[in-house]
Amino acid sequence: MASEGKISVAFVCLGNICRSPMAEAVFKHTVKEHGLLDRFGKIASFGTARYHVGEPPDERSAATCRNHGVPVDHRAQQIRKSHFDEFDYVVCMDEANLGNLLRLKPEGSKARVELFGEWNTGGKFRKIVDDPYYGGINGFEYNFEQVSYFSEEFLKRELP
């Protein structure tokens, strides 16, 4: 769990090359912009599948982040059972990821497993962060707007 009272957050999608690395990068950037780096331990992202382990993020995802001034530095990795004890929050993008994570989560682990859309205060965006992989750049832009908003709302609601 969180070391020295610091919060640890893992973001999860299927392959860890589009949505979750974007969510990780945006969340880190948002935390830094608010001067809250000292409140957080690990911020990372993972995939439920191992399709892309070791690969950089999808270029469209990385370019969308860069176009908004958000740096991306990531290599795809797969979530493991041990991560449920390393992170306070395991935040996923859709119901399929949620189901997979709940099946993988060891009994008694402390991680809170949630959809990122649970921080969709006021219903401004769709609750599900859809996979933009097979679509155009507009899907990545929409994902960016979603994860930016959800990151802000997470900080408002979860920091004591």
TrEMBL record:
Q: Which InterPro entries match?
A: LMW_PTPase (IPR050438), Ptyr_pPase (IPR023485), Ptyr_pPase_sf (IPR036196), Tyr_phospatase_low_mol_wt (IPR017867)
**Localization in the cell:** Cytoplasm
Q: Which UniProt keywords apply?
A: Cytoplasm, Hydrolase, Protein phosphatase
Q: Name one GO molecular function term.
A: protein tyrosine phosphatase activity
* Key word Hydrolase present: yes
Looking at the record, the residues that make up the Phosphotyrosine protein phosphatase I domain are 7-157
Catalysed reactions, semicolon-separated: O-phospho-L-tyrosyl-[protein] + H2O = L-tyrosyl-[protein] + phosphate; a phosphate monoester + H2O = an alcohol + phosphate
What is the top-level taxon of the source organism? Eukaryota
Which CDD domains does this one have?
LMWPTP
Establish whether keyword Transmembrane helix is in the entry: no
Active site location: 13, 19, 131
Q: Which Pfam families match?
A: LMWPc
| GO cellular component assignments | cytoplasm
Recorded family membership? Belongs to the low molecular weight phosphotyrosine protein phosphatase family.
The name this protein carries in UniProt is Phosphotyrosine protein phosphatase I domain-containing protein
